[in-house]
TrEMBL record:
GO CC aspect terms: cytosolic large ribosomal subunit
Gene Ontology biological process terms, A to Z: translation
Top-rank taxon, per record: Bacteria
GO molecular function: structural constituent of ribosome
Gene name of the record: rpmC
Family to which the UniProt record says this protein belongs: Belongs to the universal ribosomal protein uL29 family.
Organism lineage string: Bacteria, Bacteria division WOR-3
One Pfam family hit: Ribosomal_L29
Family matches, as NCBIfam families: L29
Taxonomic source organism: candidate division WOR-3 bacterium
Keywords: Ribonucleoprotein, Ribosomal protein
Protein name (Swiss-Prot/TrEMBL): Large ribosomal subunit protein uL29
Amino acid sequence: MKPFELRELSDEELLRKYFELSDEYFKLRIRKVTETLPNPKRLTMLKRDIARVLTILRERGYTKEKVLMWGRKNART
């Protein structure tokens, strides 16, 4: 995902995107241990996308604590 595409998203959408990407990254890492991934490069791409999202959130004044608090408050059941 390109940075200019991410900058067009609202804060709420960026936070949601961060948690979606983090969740997918975690699942792929677990899957990598148990089996061969069809596209191992996807892990690297996800890691970079997560960094891009966090960078834009930090530009907007979000700290790591604010991001995690939002995640706890809006956690899926």
